[in-house]
């Protein structure tokens, strides 16, 4: 069966002499892996569609256990995401979150649209760290793993000071916390509240110190790594200034 779907290339892996597997995040089929035959030959016309963050209309021959790329029409290259190191690692963190947190071939149009908005915001000069935070909070919510901050997830009372419990995906108060709980400053609780659902174009109106931004990214990284599997790119992003 042939399908055509709008999709973004998240990652490509070399296989055989001239081929690649491209992991796409698509509108109609969610995360989908396709075999691109001959794409590494110098003469290959479709080389562009394995480029990280390429957004295109991908035509795929789909079967139960193997998807083969037939052709692709590029809609946007998002090449500029690769020109600045902070922007690049931010886009990588978004791609990695999609890879870790979403299921194979499960369509989630809201997540697809969020991804396009996040990438467009990165190319438009919106604060890249805030784009990553905004995107991941929203992704976690759609996937059913929203972070509950502010109120204790054990006893229900206002949790201030708050301690993040990775297992519960939320805060505990001083009385309910355990040895593994991670202290969360009240400013971070407020920050996550402000970021929740805000329009991407309004992110630059928010002012946070770089320490707060890094603490917030660090918390999200810990939560995503604990819940879905170890990340690589968040650590790289946190190392940059
Ligand atoms: Zn409590």
Present the secondary structure layout:
Elements: E1 2-15, E2 19-26, E3 30-36, E4 55-62, E5 67-76, H1 85-101, H2 109-123, H3 128-142, E6 162-165, E7 170-172, E8 182-184, H4 186-195, H5 210-228, H6 233-239
Antiparallel strand pairs: 1-2, 1-4, 2-3, 4-5, 6-7, 6-8
Helix pairs in contact: 1-2, 1-3, 1-6, 2-3, 3-5
The chain binds zinc ion.
Zinc ion is lined by residues 152, 154-155, 157, 172-173, 175-176.
Entry keywords:
OB fold (Dihydrolipoamide Acetyltransferase, E2P), five-stranded antiparallel sheet, binds zinc ion
The averaged pLDDT comes out at 95
Outline type: elongated
* Low-confidence regions: none
Number of domains: 2
CATH top level class name of the largest domain:
Mainly Alpha
CATH-assigned homologous superfamily of the largest domain = Recombination protein O, C-terminal domain
How many H/I helices?
6
Strand content: 15-25%
Q: Give the termini separation.
A: 48 Å
Radius of gyration: 19 Å
Q: Please provide the ordered H/E string of secondary-structure elements.
A: EEEEEHHHEEEHHH
Biggest beta sheet summary: 5 strands, antiparallel
Structural class: alpha+beta
The count of DSSP E runs of length 2 or more, i.e. the number of strands, is: 8
CATH topology of the largest domain, what is it called? de novo design (two linked rop proteins)
Write out the strand line-up for the largest beta sheet, numbering strands in chain order: 3-2-1-4-5
Named once each, the bound ligands are: zinc ion
Name the CATH architecture of the largest domain. Answer: Up-down Bundle
Percent of residues in helices comes to 25-40%
């Amino acid at each position: 069966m042939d399908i055509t779907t709008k999709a973004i290339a998240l990652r490509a892996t070399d296989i055989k002499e001239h081929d690649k597997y491209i992991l796409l995040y698509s509108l109609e089929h969610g995360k989908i892996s396709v075999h691109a035959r001959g794409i590494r030959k110098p003469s290959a016309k479709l080389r562009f569609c394995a480029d990280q963050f390429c957004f295109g209309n991908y035509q795929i021959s789909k079967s139960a256990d193997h998807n083969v790329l037939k052709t692709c029409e590029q809609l946007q290259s998002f090449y500029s995401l690769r020109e600045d190191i902070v922007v690049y690692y931010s886009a990588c963190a978004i791609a990695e979150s999609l890879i870790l947190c979403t299921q194979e071939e499960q369509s989630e149009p809201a997540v697809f649209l969020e991804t396009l908005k996040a990438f467009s915001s990165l190319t438009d000069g919106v604060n890249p760290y805030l784009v990553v935070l905004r995107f991941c909070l929203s992704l976690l919510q759609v996937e059913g793993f929203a972070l509950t901050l502010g109120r204790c997830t054990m006893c229900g009372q206002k949790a201030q000071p708050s301690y993040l419990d990775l297992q519960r995906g939320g805060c505990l108060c001083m009385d309910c916390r355990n040895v593994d709980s991670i202290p969360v400053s009240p400013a971070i609780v407020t920050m996550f509240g402000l970021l929740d659902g805000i329009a991407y174009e309004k992110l630059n109106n928010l002012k946070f110190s770089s320490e707060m931004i890094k603490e917030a990214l660090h918390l999200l990284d810990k939560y995503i790594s604990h819940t879905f599997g170890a990340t690589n790119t968040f650590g790289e992003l946190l190392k940059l200034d």
